[in-house]
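Bench log. Compound arrived from synthesis this morning; before running ITC I wanted a structural hypothesis for how zinc ion sits in the protein. Inputs:
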Amino acid sequence: MMIKLLSFFLLLNIATFAQTKNDPFILILGVAQDAGYPQAGCEKDCCKRVLKDPAAKRMVASLALADPATHQWWLFDATPDITTQMQLFRSKTNAGYPVLPSGIFLTHAHIGHYTGLMYLGREAMNTRSIPVYAMSRMTNFLLQNGPWNQLSSLNNIFLKPLMADSSVNLSTGIQPRW
Ligand SMILES: [Zn+2]
Ligand SMILES: [Zn+2]
């Protein structure tokens, strides 16, 4: 057990020292399923316990990818928790990055992964042409259905269709590896 623990700490140390100041990094902003934790309407102990212990609450799965060399960052998934998640990224990086990401990637079409886009709209941040990357079926859905199509018609977002088995170059520090 001791040896296992020791090697764990050694690995941890190597990982810590391997990261230099300008290396890109990711920050996990949420880990829960689409509907978050606790879930609406759940009367079971799993969610009741969060009433007694608010620290047990978890935000919907999301992560930030940041490049210190270019001071850019990208958000993976626009969740219903996007407001708090953007604040979390900002506080964890000591406001060292722009408030808004250089782009948002949508991983899939479950509610927890795109509905946060509504906060880019006129009633909230009213952003200017934030690139939103998604597979073409998803970009078509967002273009053809309200209320999401308003984000494009008002240029709050700029949809960028992704292609299967192809890569996107984000910055010189973040290159695809096959
Ligand atoms: Zn529950
Ligand atoms: Zn999902």
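What the model suggests: The chain has one domain: 23-162. The chain has six helices and six strands.
ITC booked for Thursday regardless.
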